[in-house]
Amino acid sequence: MRKISIIIPVFGEGAIINSAVDAVSNFEHSGDLEIIVVDGHPDESTIKEIKNTGIIKINCRKGRGNQLNCGAAKAVGEVLLFLHADTRLPLSALQQISAALEDNGCIGGAFDLGIAADSRAFRIIEKIASWRSRFTRIPYGDQAIFIRADYFRQLGGFRNIPIMEDVDLMQRIRKRKGKIKIIGDPVATSPRRWETEGIIFCTLRNWFLISLFYLGVKPETLARFYK
User: Fold this and answer.
1) Architecture label for domain 4-225
2) Domain spans of the chain?
3) Beta bridge partners of 188
């Protein structure tokens, strides 16, 4: 079984980081597992809260792409799994990742999106996300992207851009005709952004920004509309 490195970028997530770490640290996995938390806050406010002494803690300049690259540079796993702090993996996630990569032609993938809330609107968003991921072959970061470490490094990692670093990475994989696997067992991501901003506004804003990115608008411009 392959060694998997789980990389969690954080900024001001002290209130949830221990639950995030606990959720993956006890996963059953016949291979080795390492968990790397990369804090983008200069005062290291999130990683200071971590109680599990087995976690690798890194502090670097803020920016999700930059933080993920810093974690990947430290990782020794054959597989890199990029996980948001407010996203929970299905219990069999690591086994499913290893099974997907038994196909030597597969370079990585992601999970279907699940949102940890009861609203019917979220079920619609999930279904659209599932269809989109399979049609475009471009899953997003909240779907827990995983990738072979050597392929990731050959690709040059994430671009250091303020937004859409996940989409950009998957676009480059697609251009290279890299085969990815979308695993049907969904993650459970927090609904907090939708609930704070409003489901309709948040969803339409996200679709609008992604469409502009596909049309060539610079991430630096798009970041002004995504707080």
Assistant:
1) Alpha-Beta Complex (3.90)
2) 4-225
3) 88
